[in-house]
UniProtKB/TrEMBL annotation:
This is Alanine--tRNA ligase. Residues 1-482 form the Alanyl-transfer RNA synthetases family profile domain. The keyword Transport does not apply. The chain holds residues 1 to 482 of 893 of the full protein. It catalyses: tRNA(Ala) + L-alanine + ATP = L-alanyl-tRNA(Ala) + AMP + diphosphate. Its EC number is 6.1.1.7. Belongs to the class-II aminoacyl-tRNA synthetase family. Binds 1 zinc ion per subunit. The lineage of its organism: Bacteria, Bacillati, Actinomycetota, Actinomycetes, Mycobacteriales. GO terms for molecular function: alanine-tRNA ligase activity; aminoacyl-tRNA deacylase activity; ATP binding; tRNA binding; zinc ion binding. Catalyzes the attachment of alanine to tRNA(Ala) in a two-step reaction: alanine is first activated by ATP to form Ala-AMP and then transferred to the acceptor end of tRNA(Ala). Also edits incorrectly charged Ser-tRNA(Ala) and Gly-tRNA(Ala) via its editing domain. The gene is alaS. It is found in: Cytoplasm. GO terms for biological process: alanyl-tRNA aminoacylation.
Length: 482
Protein backbone atom coordinates (compact mmCIF):
# COMPACT_ATOMS: atom_id res chain seq x y z
CA UNK A 1 0.00 0.00 0.00
CA UNK A 2 1.41 3.33 -1.09
CA UNK A 3 2.09 6.09 1.44
CA UNK A 4 -0.48 8.43 -0.05
CA UNK A 5 -3.08 5.68 0.38
CA UNK A 6 -2.01 5.04 4.00
CA UNK A 7 -2.56 8.72 4.77
CA UNK A 8 -5.93 8.77 3.10
CA UNK A 9 -7.16 5.65 4.87
CA UNK A 10 -6.15 7.10 8.21
CA UNK A 11 -8.08 10.32 7.65
CA UNK A 12 -11.10 8.54 6.17
CA UNK A 13 -11.26 6.13 9.11
CA UNK A 14 -11.42 8.97 11.61
CA UNK A 15 -13.69 11.16 9.53
CA UNK A 16 -16.14 8.25 9.45
CA UNK A 17 -15.93 8.23 13.25
CA UNK A 18 -16.99 11.87 13.46
CA UNK A 19 -13.60 13.63 13.44
CA UNK A 20 -12.98 16.94 11.69
CA UNK A 21 -10.05 16.80 9.30
CA UNK A 22 -7.53 19.51 10.12
CA UNK A 23 -4.81 20.22 7.54
CA UNK A 24 -1.19 19.95 8.60
CA UNK A 25 0.20 23.09 10.17
CA UNK A 26 3.48 24.53 8.90
CA UNK A 27 6.65 23.03 10.34
CA UNK A 28 7.34 26.48 11.73
CA UNK A 29 4.95 27.68 14.37
CA UNK A 30 5.21 30.86 16.34
CA UNK A 31 6.41 29.23 19.54
CA UNK A 32 9.65 30.37 21.15
CA UNK A 33 10.20 26.95 22.70
CA UNK A 34 9.93 25.08 19.50
CA UNK A 35 12.44 24.78 16.71
CA UNK A 36 10.11 22.74 14.51
CA UNK A 37 6.76 21.06 14.92
CA UNK A 38 7.69 17.58 16.04
CA UNK A 39 4.37 15.93 16.87
CA UNK A 40 0.80 15.94 15.67
CA UNK A 41 -0.51 17.48 18.87
CA UNK A 42 1.63 20.62 18.70
CA UNK A 43 -0.87 22.76 16.72
CA UNK A 44 -3.57 21.68 19.21
CA UNK A 45 -1.58 22.68 22.29
CA UNK A 46 -3.74 25.72 23.14
CA UNK A 47 -6.80 23.42 23.27
CA UNK A 48 -5.10 20.88 25.51
CA UNK A 49 -3.78 23.59 27.81
CA UNK A 50 -7.23 25.13 28.03
CA UNK A 51 -6.07 28.46 26.58
CA UNK A 52 -8.53 28.21 23.69
CA UNK A 53 -11.79 26.38 23.07
CA UNK A 54 -11.60 24.01 20.08
CA UNK A 55 -14.26 24.43 17.39
CA UNK A 56 -14.69 20.62 17.38
CA UNK A 57 -14.45 17.86 19.96
CA UNK A 58 -12.86 15.30 17.61
CA UNK A 59 -10.12 16.10 15.13
CA UNK A 60 -7.78 14.16 12.85
CA UNK A 61 -4.69 15.28 10.95
CA UNK A 62 -1.53 14.15 9.24
CA UNK A 63 1.04 16.57 10.57
CA UNK A 64 4.43 17.32 9.02
CA UNK A 65 7.06 16.73 11.71
CA UNK A 66 10.80 17.36 11.97
CA UNK A 67 12.88 15.91 14.79
CA UNK A 68 16.41 17.23 14.84
CA UNK A 69 17.03 15.01 17.81
CA UNK A 70 16.84 11.97 15.54
CA UNK A 71 19.40 13.24 13.02
CA UNK A 72 22.16 10.96 14.25
CA UNK A 73 19.89 7.93 13.97
CA UNK A 74 19.10 8.49 10.32
CA UNK A 75 20.23 5.72 8.02
CA UNK A 76 21.52 3.69 10.95
CA UNK A 77 18.33 2.58 12.67
CA UNK A 78 15.61 1.21 10.47
CA UNK A 79 12.96 3.64 11.65
CA UNK A 80 14.08 7.24 12.21
CA UNK A 81 13.53 10.05 9.72
CA UNK A 82 14.30 13.70 10.34
CA UNK A 83 11.07 14.55 8.49
CA UNK A 84 8.11 12.26 8.91
CA UNK A 85 4.34 12.41 8.85
CA UNK A 86 2.51 11.83 12.09
CA UNK A 87 -1.11 10.85 11.67
CA UNK A 88 -3.26 11.52 14.70
CA UNK A 89 -6.72 11.54 16.18
CA UNK A 90 -7.63 13.87 18.99
CA UNK A 91 -10.46 14.04 21.47
CA UNK A 92 -11.07 17.22 23.42
CA UNK A 93 -13.12 16.16 26.40
CA UNK A 94 -15.06 13.74 24.20
CA UNK A 95 -14.20 10.03 23.92
CA UNK A 96 -11.44 8.43 25.98
CA UNK A 97 -9.42 5.22 26.35
CA UNK A 98 -11.91 2.63 25.21
CA UNK A 99 -12.73 4.36 21.93
CA UNK A 100 -9.13 5.46 21.27
CA UNK A 101 -7.91 1.88 21.58
CA UNK A 102 -10.73 0.51 19.49
CA UNK A 103 -10.32 3.11 16.71
CA UNK A 104 -6.60 2.33 16.43
CA UNK A 105 -7.09 -1.41 16.50
CA UNK A 106 -9.77 -1.32 13.83
CA UNK A 107 -7.75 0.78 11.42
CA UNK A 108 -4.71 -1.46 11.82
CA UNK A 109 -6.46 -4.80 11.61
CA UNK A 110 -9.55 -4.22 9.45
CA UNK A 111 -9.21 -5.80 6.05
CA UNK A 112 -8.04 -3.70 3.12
CA UNK A 113 -11.50 -4.12 1.54
CA UNK A 114 -13.01 -2.64 4.69
CA UNK A 115 -10.81 0.44 4.62
CA UNK A 116 -8.17 -0.80 7.08
CA UNK A 117 -4.50 -1.71 6.75
CA UNK A 118 -5.13 -5.46 7.00
CA UNK A 119 -2.36 -6.09 9.54
CA UNK A 120 -2.24 -9.55 11.09
CA UNK A 121 -3.48 -8.97 14.67
CA UNK A 122 -1.16 -11.63 16.09
CA UNK A 123 1.81 -9.41 15.19
CA UNK A 124 0.65 -6.50 17.34
CA UNK A 125 1.93 -5.92 20.87
CA UNK A 126 0.39 -3.13 22.94
CA UNK A 127 2.15 -1.64 25.95
CA UNK A 128 0.44 0.08 28.87
CA UNK A 129 1.67 2.19 31.77
CA UNK A 130 2.59 0.31 34.98
CA UNK A 131 -0.62 0.95 36.88
CA UNK A 132 -2.99 1.38 33.97
CA UNK A 133 -5.23 -1.62 34.66
CA UNK A 134 -8.02 0.03 32.75
CA UNK A 135 -6.06 0.15 29.47
CA UNK A 136 -4.79 -3.37 29.96
CA UNK A 137 -8.25 -4.71 30.53
CA UNK A 138 -9.56 -2.97 27.40
CA UNK A 139 -6.78 -4.53 25.33
CA UNK A 140 -7.25 -7.96 26.86
CA UNK A 141 -10.96 -8.32 27.55
CA UNK A 142 -12.52 -6.11 24.89
CA UNK A 143 -10.04 -6.27 22.01
CA UNK A 144 -8.93 -9.81 22.78
CA UNK A 145 -5.14 -9.43 22.78
CA UNK A 146 -3.71 -12.28 24.86
CA UNK A 147 -2.15 -10.97 28.09
CA UNK A 148 1.29 -12.35 27.19
CA UNK A 149 1.44 -9.84 24.33
CA UNK A 150 0.63 -6.84 26.56
CA UNK A 151 3.61 -5.33 28.35
CA UNK A 152 3.67 -2.80 31.16
CA UNK A 153 6.28 -0.07 31.01
CA UNK A 154 7.32 2.71 33.36
CA UNK A 155 7.39 6.50 33.31
CA UNK A 156 10.21 6.75 30.79
CA UNK A 157 8.33 4.93 28.06
CA UNK A 158 4.67 5.15 28.90
CA UNK A 159 3.86 8.36 30.71
CA UNK A 160 3.42 11.64 28.90
CA UNK A 161 3.32 15.33 29.72
CA UNK A 162 4.21 18.47 27.81
CA UNK A 163 7.14 19.23 30.09
CA UNK A 164 5.22 22.05 31.73
CA UNK A 165 2.30 22.21 34.15
CA UNK A 166 -0.79 21.06 32.33
CA UNK A 167 -2.25 17.78 31.15
CA UNK A 168 -0.36 14.52 31.58
CA UNK A 169 -1.21 10.86 31.58
CA UNK A 170 -0.34 7.29 30.72
CA UNK A 171 0.28 6.09 27.16
CA UNK A 172 -0.37 2.89 25.36
CA UNK A 173 1.91 2.18 22.43
CA UNK A 174 1.39 -0.32 19.66
CA UNK A 175 4.34 -2.29 18.32
CA UNK A 176 4.55 -4.58 15.31
CA UNK A 177 6.55 -7.80 15.49
CA UNK A 178 8.71 -7.99 12.37
CA UNK A 179 9.69 -11.55 13.11
CA UNK A 180 12.68 -13.52 14.37
CA UNK A 181 14.95 -12.41 11.50
CA UNK A 182 14.87 -8.90 13.00
CA UNK A 183 15.90 -9.71 16.56
CA UNK A 184 15.16 -11.50 19.78
CA UNK A 185 11.82 -12.61 21.12
CA UNK A 186 10.19 -10.99 24.14
CA UNK A 187 8.17 -8.01 22.98
CA UNK A 188 9.16 -4.35 22.82
CA UNK A 189 10.70 -4.57 26.29
CA UNK A 190 13.27 -6.93 24.80
CA UNK A 191 13.95 -5.45 21.36
CA UNK A 192 12.67 -2.27 19.76
CA UNK A 193 14.18 -3.10 16.38
CA UNK A 194 12.34 -6.34 15.97
CA UNK A 195 9.20 -4.89 17.58
CA UNK A 196 8.79 -1.59 15.83
CA UNK A 197 6.75 1.17 17.45
CA UNK A 198 4.03 2.39 15.14
CA UNK A 199 1.46 4.23 17.24
CA UNK A 200 1.41 6.09 20.52
CA UNK A 201 -1.93 6.62 22.27
CA UNK A 202 -1.78 9.26 24.99
CA UNK A 203 -4.50 9.33 27.60
CA UNK A 204 -4.50 12.81 29.12
CA UNK A 205 -6.27 12.17 32.37
CA UNK A 206 -4.30 14.01 35.05
CA UNK A 207 -2.90 17.42 35.71
CA UNK A 208 0.76 17.88 36.53
CA UNK A 209 2.39 20.60 38.57
CA UNK A 210 5.78 22.30 38.37
CA UNK A 211 8.98 20.31 38.08
CA UNK A 212 11.77 20.18 35.59
CA UNK A 213 12.48 16.59 34.79
CA UNK A 214 10.47 13.62 33.78
CA UNK A 215 10.26 11.97 37.17
CA UNK A 216 10.28 15.08 39.24
CA UNK A 217 6.86 16.59 39.18
CA UNK A 218 3.75 16.30 41.17
CA UNK A 219 0.59 14.83 39.73
CA UNK A 220 -2.08 17.14 41.09
CA UNK A 221 -5.12 15.01 40.33
CA UNK A 222 -7.57 14.11 37.61
CA UNK A 223 -8.38 16.55 34.83
CA UNK A 224 -11.98 17.71 34.74
CA UNK A 225 -12.08 16.97 31.00
CA UNK A 226 -10.04 14.09 29.66
CA UNK A 227 -8.36 14.26 26.26
CA UNK A 228 -6.90 11.89 23.71
CA UNK A 229 -3.79 12.58 21.64
CA UNK A 230 -2.41 9.90 19.35
CA UNK A 231 0.42 9.73 16.85
CA UNK A 232 0.97 7.06 14.22
CA UNK A 233 4.09 7.18 12.08
CA UNK A 234 3.02 7.02 8.43
CA UNK A 235 6.52 6.05 7.23
CA UNK A 236 6.71 3.21 9.72
CA UNK A 237 3.38 1.79 8.67
CA UNK A 238 4.46 2.17 5.03
CA UNK A 239 7.62 0.23 5.81
CA UNK A 240 5.62 -2.66 7.25
CA UNK A 241 2.88 -2.70 4.63
CA UNK A 242 5.37 -2.48 1.78
CA UNK A 243 7.43 -5.30 3.26
CA UNK A 244 10.68 -3.35 3.03
CA UNK A 245 13.54 -3.39 5.46
CA UNK A 246 13.49 0.19 6.69
CA UNK A 247 11.64 3.50 6.32
CA UNK A 248 14.14 4.78 3.74
CA UNK A 249 13.10 2.10 1.29
CA UNK A 250 9.43 3.06 1.27
CA UNK A 251 7.80 4.41 -1.87
CA UNK A 252 8.43 8.11 -1.14
CA UNK A 253 12.12 7.77 -0.28
CA UNK A 254 13.40 4.88 -2.37
CA UNK A 255 13.17 6.86 -5.64
CA UNK A 256 15.65 9.34 -4.15
CA UNK A 257 18.03 6.55 -3.22
CA UNK A 258 17.70 5.16 -6.74
CA UNK A 259 18.42 8.56 -8.26
CA UNK A 260 21.45 9.04 -6.01
CA UNK A 261 22.64 5.65 -7.13
CA UNK A 262 22.32 6.62 -10.80
CA UNK A 263 24.08 9.93 -10.17
CA UNK A 264 27.02 8.36 -8.36
CA UNK A 265 27.25 5.15 -10.31
CA UNK A 266 27.31 3.26 -7.04
CA UNK A 267 24.88 0.54 -6.08
CA UNK A 268 22.59 0.67 -3.04
CA UNK A 269 22.36 -2.56 -1.06
CA UNK A 270 25.53 -3.99 -2.53
CA UNK A 271 26.81 -5.00 0.89
CA UNK A 272 28.76 -1.84 1.76
CA UNK A 273 27.16 -0.61 4.95
CA UNK A 274 28.76 2.84 4.90
CA UNK A 275 27.51 3.51 1.40
CA UNK A 276 24.02 2.37 2.27
CA UNK A 277 23.90 4.71 5.26
CA UNK A 278 24.95 7.60 2.97
CA UNK A 279 22.26 6.77 0.45
CA UNK A 280 19.67 6.76 3.23
CA UNK A 281 20.99 10.04 4.63
CA UNK A 282 20.73 11.66 1.19
CA UNK A 283 17.13 10.50 0.76
CA UNK A 284 16.05 11.47 4.26
CA UNK A 285 17.79 14.83 4.37
CA UNK A 286 16.76 15.86 0.86
CA UNK A 287 13.16 15.40 1.79
CA UNK A 288 13.49 17.28 5.07
CA UNK A 289 15.36 20.11 3.36
CA UNK A 290 12.69 20.48 0.67
CA UNK A 291 9.90 20.51 3.26
CA UNK A 292 11.71 23.09 5.40
CA UNK A 293 12.44 25.42 2.49
CA UNK A 294 8.81 25.00 1.44
CA UNK A 295 7.82 26.26 4.90
CA UNK A 296 10.04 29.32 4.64
CA UNK A 297 13.37 28.28 6.17
CA UNK A 298 16.56 29.50 4.49
CA UNK A 299 20.12 28.40 5.29
CA UNK A 300 21.77 30.36 8.08
CA UNK A 301 24.45 29.97 10.68
CA UNK A 302 22.12 29.51 13.61
CA UNK A 303 18.68 28.36 14.64
CA UNK A 304 16.36 26.74 12.10
CA UNK A 305 18.45 27.95 9.20
CA UNK A 306 21.45 26.14 10.57
CA UNK A 307 19.59 22.86 10.75
CA UNK A 308 18.68 23.31 7.08
CA UNK A 309 22.25 24.24 6.20
CA UNK A 310 23.56 21.17 7.92
CA UNK A 311 21.07 18.91 6.16
CA UNK A 312 21.95 20.32 2.74
CA UNK A 313 25.67 20.06 3.38
CA UNK A 314 25.33 16.51 4.57
CA UNK A 315 23.67 15.71 1.24
CA UNK A 316 26.54 17.24 -0.71
CA UNK A 317 29.08 15.52 1.49
CA UNK A 318 27.36 12.15 1.28
CA UNK A 319 27.01 12.38 -2.48
CA UNK A 320 30.71 13.12 -2.83
CA UNK A 321 31.65 10.30 -0.53
CA UNK A 322 29.48 8.09 -2.71
CA UNK A 323 31.65 9.06 -5.61
CA UNK A 324 30.31 12.20 -7.19
CA UNK A 325 33.66 13.92 -7.66
CA UNK A 326 35.28 13.56 -4.23
CA UNK A 327 38.47 15.44 -4.89
CA UNK A 328 37.73 17.78 -7.74
CA UNK A 329 34.97 20.37 -8.00
CA UNK A 330 32.35 17.68 -7.53
CA UNK A 331 29.30 17.41 -9.66
CA UNK A 332 26.24 19.43 -8.86
CA UNK A 333 23.52 16.92 -8.01
CA UNK A 334 21.30 18.92 -5.67
CA UNK A 335 18.91 20.18 -8.30
CA UNK A 336 18.02 16.73 -9.55
CA UNK A 337 17.73 15.28 -6.06
CA UNK A 338 15.45 18.01 -4.75
CA UNK A 339 13.39 17.92 -7.96
CA UNK A 340 12.83 14.22 -7.35
CA UNK A 341 11.64 14.93 -3.80
CA UNK A 342 9.17 17.49 -5.11
CA UNK A 343 7.90 15.01 -7.71
CA UNK A 344 7.25 12.25 -5.19
CA UNK A 345 5.92 14.42 -2.36
CA UNK A 346 3.71 16.88 -4.17
CA UNK A 347 0.62 14.64 -4.50
CA UNK A 348 0.29 14.99 -0.69
CA UNK A 349 1.90 18.44 -0.48
CA UNK A 350 0.87 20.50 -3.52
CA UNK A 351 2.58 23.56 -1.99
CA UNK A 352 5.90 21.99 -3.01
CA UNK A 353 4.90 22.13 -6.65
CA UNK A 354 3.85 25.76 -6.34
CA UNK A 355 7.19 26.63 -4.81
CA UNK A 356 9.32 24.40 -7.00
CA UNK A 357 11.53 27.18 -8.37
CA UNK A 358 12.15 28.74 -4.96
CA UNK A 359 12.94 25.43 -3.24
CA UNK A 360 15.35 24.42 -6.00
CA UNK A 361 17.13 27.76 -6.04
CA UNK A 362 17.67 27.86 -2.26
CA UNK A 363 19.01 24.30 -2.20
CA UNK A 364 21.25 24.78 -5.21
CA UNK A 365 22.65 28.07 -3.85
CA UNK A 366 23.71 26.25 -0.68
CA UNK A 367 25.30 23.49 -2.72
CA UNK A 368 27.27 26.11 -4.66
CA UNK A 369 28.45 27.87 -1.50
CA UNK A 370 29.47 24.60 0.07
CA UNK A 371 31.24 23.52 -3.11
CA UNK A 372 33.31 26.69 -2.82
CA UNK A 373 34.05 25.85 0.80
CA UNK A 374 35.12 22.40 -0.23
CA UNK A 375 37.27 23.77 -3.02
CA UNK A 376 39.05 26.14 -0.61
CA UNK A 377 39.46 23.31 1.89
CA UNK A 378 40.80 21.00 -0.78
CA UNK A 379 43.60 23.46 -1.48
CA UNK A 380 44.56 23.56 2.19
CA UNK A 381 44.24 19.79 2.29
CA UNK A 382 46.69 19.36 -0.59
CA UNK A 383 49.15 21.71 1.08
CA UNK A 384 48.83 19.82 4.37
CA UNK A 385 49.22 16.49 2.60
CA UNK A 386 52.33 17.69 0.74
CA UNK A 387 53.85 19.11 3.90
CA UNK A 388 53.16 15.86 5.75
CA UNK A 389 54.93 13.84 3.07
CA UNK A 390 57.85 16.25 2.84
CA UNK A 391 58.30 15.91 6.60
CA UNK A 392 58.50 12.14 6.14
CA UNK A 393 55.30 11.62 8.14
CA UNK A 394 52.32 9.49 7.14
CA UNK A 395 49.77 11.28 9.27
CA UNK A 396 48.10 14.64 8.71
CA UNK A 397 48.20 16.55 11.98
CA UNK A 398 45.18 16.95 14.22
CA UNK A 399 45.49 20.69 14.00
CA UNK A 400 45.37 20.66 10.18
CA UNK A 401 42.31 18.42 10.29
CA UNK A 402 40.77 20.76 12.85
CA UNK A 403 41.49 23.88 10.78
CA UNK A 404 39.94 22.16 7.78
CA UNK A 405 36.85 21.46 9.82
CA UNK A 406 36.66 24.67 11.77
CA UNK A 407 37.67 27.24 9.18
CA UNK A 408 36.55 25.54 5.99
CA UNK A 409 33.67 23.44 7.30
CA UNK A 410 35.45 20.36 6.05
CA UNK A 411 33.84 17.26 7.57
CA UNK A 412 36.33 14.88 9.18
CA UNK A 413 35.21 11.87 7.20
CA UNK A 414 35.96 13.76 4.00
CA UNK A 415 39.41 14.61 5.33
CA UNK A 416 39.89 10.95 6.24
CA UNK A 417 38.78 9.72 2.86
CA UNK A 418 40.95 12.17 0.97
CA UNK A 419 43.88 11.31 3.23
CA UNK A 420 43.39 7.64 2.45
CA UNK A 421 43.37 8.43 -1.25
CA UNK A 422 46.68 10.21 -0.78
CA UNK A 423 48.08 7.22 1.12
CA UNK A 424 47.97 9.08 4.42
CA UNK A 425 46.33 8.83 7.81
CA UNK A 426 44.98 11.55 10.08
CA UNK A 427 45.86 12.17 13.72
CA UNK A 428 42.31 11.59 14.87
CA UNK A 429 43.16 11.83 18.54
CA UNK A 430 44.64 15.29 18.13
CA UNK A 431 41.64 16.27 16.06
CA UNK A 432 39.17 14.96 18.66
CA UNK A 433 40.94 16.81 21.43
CA UNK A 434 40.62 20.11 19.57
CA UNK A 435 37.00 19.33 18.74
CA UNK A 436 36.31 18.58 22.39
CA UNK A 437 37.73 21.94 23.44
CA UNK A 438 35.62 23.69 20.86
CA UNK A 439 32.53 21.77 21.86
CA UNK A 440 32.98 22.82 25.47
CA UNK A 441 33.16 26.45 24.35
CA UNK A 442 30.10 26.05 22.14
CA UNK A 443 28.21 24.35 24.94
CA UNK A 444 28.81 27.31 27.21
CA UNK A 445 27.47 29.53 24.42
CA UNK A 446 24.54 27.29 23.71
CA UNK A 447 23.40 26.98 27.30
CA UNK A 448 23.21 30.76 27.41
CA UNK A 449 20.67 30.75 24.61
CA UNK A 450 19.08 27.44 25.30
CA UNK A 451 15.84 28.91 26.53
CA UNK A 452 15.17 30.55 23.20
CA UNK A 453 16.17 27.58 21.06
CA UNK A 454 14.92 24.60 23.03
CA UNK A 455 13.43 22.02 20.74
CA UNK A 456 10.05 20.85 21.90
CA UNK A 457 11.02 17.29 21.10
CA UNK A 458 13.05 17.54 24.25
CA UNK A 459 9.85 17.06 26.09
CA UNK A 460 8.62 13.98 24.33
CA UNK A 461 12.06 12.46 24.32
CA UNK A 462 12.52 13.18 27.98
CA UNK A 463 9.22 11.64 28.71
CA UNK A 464 9.64 8.69 26.45
CA UNK A 465 13.18 7.91 27.39
CA UNK A 466 13.82 9.33 30.80
CA UNK A 467 16.02 12.17 31.88
CA UNK A 468 18.67 12.05 29.22
CA UNK A 469 20.49 15.20 28.28
CA UNK A 470 19.43 16.85 25.06
CA UNK A 471 22.60 17.26 23.06
CA UNK A 472 21.25 17.31 19.52
CA UNK A 473 21.14 21.02 19.13
CA UNK A 474 24.38 21.63 21.00
CA UNK A 475 26.05 19.36 18.51
CA UNK A 476 24.51 21.35 15.73
CA UNK A 477 25.74 24.55 17.28
CA UNK A 478 29.25 23.23 17.67
CA UNK A 479 29.36 22.27 14.03
CA UNK A 480 27.99 25.64 13.02
CA UNK A 481 31.40 27.17 12.55
CA UNK A 482 31.70 26.94 8.81
P1 LIG B 1 10.97 5.88 18.91
O1 LIG B 1 10.91 5.32 20.30
O2 LIG B 1 10.93 4.83 17.85
O3 LIG B 1 12.05 6.90 18.73
P2 LIG B 1 9.04 7.80 19.77
O4 LIG B 1 8.56 7.09 21.00
O5 LIG B 1 10.08 8.85 19.93
O6 LIG B 1 9.58 6.70 18.70
P3 LIG B 1 6.54 9.23 19.60
O7 LIG B 1 7.07 10.50 20.15
O8 LIG B 1 5.72 8.36 20.47
O9 LIG B 1 7.79 8.40 18.97
O10 LIG B 1 5.78 9.57 18.23
C1 LIG B 1 4.61 8.90 17.78
C2 LIG B 1 4.89 8.05 16.55
O11 LIG B 1 5.57 8.79 15.53
C3 LIG B 1 5.78 6.87 16.83
O12 LIG B 1 5.03 5.79 17.35
C4 LIG B 1 6.34 6.57 15.44
O13 LIG B 1 5.44 5.77 14.69
C5 LIG B 1 6.44 7.93 14.79
N1 LIG B 1 7.82 8.47 14.86
C6 LIG B 1 8.44 9.02 15.92
N2 LIG B 1 9.68 9.44 15.62
C7 LIG B 1 9.86 9.16 14.31
C8 LIG B 1 10.93 9.37 13.39
N3 LIG B 1 12.06 9.97 13.75
N4 LIG B 1 10.77 8.95 12.11
C9 LIG B 1 9.62 8.34 11.71
N5 LIG B 1 8.57 8.12 12.53
C10 LIG B 1 8.67 8.52 13.81
MG1 LIG C 1 6.52 6.69 21.51
MG1 LIG D 1 12.10 8.81 19.47
MG1 LIG E 1 9.32 5.19 21.73
Amino acid sequence: MQTHEIRKRFLDHFIRAGHTEVPSASLILDDPNLLFVNAGMVPFKPFFLGDQTPPYTRATSVQKCVRTLDIEEVGITTRHNTFFQMAGNFSFGDYFKREAIRFAWELLTNSVEDGGYGIDPTRLWPTVYLDDDEAESIWRDEIGVPSERIQRRGMADNYWSMGVPGPCGPCSEIFYDRGPEYGVEGGPEADEDRYIEIWNLVFMQNERGEGTSKDDYEILGPLPKKNIDTGMGIERVACLLQGVDNVYETDLLKPIIDLASRLTGREYGAGKHEDDVRFRVVADHARTAAMLIGDGVVPANDGRGYVLRRLLRRIVRSMRLLGSGTTGGGEATMERIIAEVIDVMSPSYPELEQQRAHILSVAVAEETTFARTLAAGSKLFSEAADATKRAGSTSISGSDAFTLHDTYGFPIDLTLEMAAEAGLEVDREGFSELMGEQRRRAKADASARKSSHADQSVYREFLDRGPTEFTGFDELVSEARV
